[in-house]
Design goal:
alpha/beta, Rossmann fold, 2 domains, 9-stranded mixed β-sheet, 8 helices, 9 strands, transcription regulation, Scarecrow-like 3, nucleus
């Protein structure tokens, strides 16, 4: 929701948008974005979405595109959707490979994906961020786990993971019934895989390297981005109130929107622009 709100605010009065979705795993983000864009006073823009995927969920994504296209048509949005079955890399993130077009407002969207490039040397993340910067997007939206799972020692990662995922599972218990297909999928597919990777793997095989919000701010600032304060606190609070669940907390800190559970940080959302030191 926070990423969509940032995209909508930055795309006002723009009639053609192109969103690059890093590591796309599903299309659940886009229906709500399209509904908001369709309600603009100036009318809906043309929307192009390029999903960069690793290939493992290609069939599942293709199956959902028909429903997305039908919804776009009902909203009066001209939607073009492209899937690129190739891992995200600096070589892929170029104007030519992404087929960027003049006149389009470019957005790069990363939902829990950038942490996969955090290595011991941090060179991989730096290279990805530099490639994104060269694309000169209108906005880079980042949603990440707000946790410290990148420590060098097993015991520290184990204890941090224990507290973090205990809060995650506690929040799911309060939010979704135990037989909910959505909850079962998150627990068995997403979270179990993350926990296993954090605890059981080392070196280049350990890709679930979640970091805290302050560390993300430092990395993105050093790469030449400046944070743009999110203006969706009231909408986020309203959404939580609709579900009527006590325990979730919301806060803003240095431009980031932070979601927690009973005082334990869970997720962060932020929006970034290329920092131009010498504006024309």
């Amino acid at each position: 929701m926070a990423a969509n709100e940032a995209i909508c605010q930055a795309s006002q009065e723009k009639d053609s948008l192109h969103i690059i979705d890093l590591g796309m795993e599903h299309t659940l983000q886009w229906p709500s974005l399209m509904r908001t864009l369709a309600a603009r006073n100036e009318g809906p823009p043309k929307l192009r979405i390029t999903g960069l995927i690793d290939g493992h969920n290609l069939l599942e994504l293709e199956a959902s595109l028909k429903e997305l296209a039908e919804e776009a048509s009902s909203l009066g949005i001209r939607l073009e959707f492209n899937l690129v079955s190739e891992p995200v890399s600096p070589l892929l993130l170029t104007t030519e490979n992404l087929n960027l077009r003049e006149g389009e407002a470019l957005f790069v969207n990363s939902i829990m994906h950038l942490h996969k490039f955090v290595k011991e040397s941090r060179g991989s993340l730096k290279a990805i961020l530099q490639a994104i910067k060269k694309l000169n997007p209108t906005l880079l939206t980042v949603v990440e786990q707000d946790a410290n799972h990148n420590g060098p020692f097993f015991l520290g990662r184990f204890i941090e993971s224990l507290h973090y995922y205990s809060a995650i599972f506690d929040s799911l218990e309060a939010s979704l019934p135990r037989n909910s297909p959505q909850r079962i999928k998150m627990e068995k597919v997403q979270f179990s895989t993350e926990i296993c990777n954090i605890i059981a793997y080392e070196g280049s095989n350990r890709i679930e390297r979640h970091e805290r919000a302050d560390q993300w701010r430092r990395q993105l600032s050093r790469a030449g981005f400046q944070v743009m304060g999110l203006k969706c606190m009231s909408q986020a609070r309203m959404m939580l109130s609709v579900y009527g669940i006590d325990g979730y907390t919301l806060a803003t800190e240095k431009g980031c929107l932070l979601l927690g559970w009973k005082g334990r940080p869970l997720m962060l959302a932020s929006a970034w622009q290329v920092h131009n030191l010498f504006p024309s």
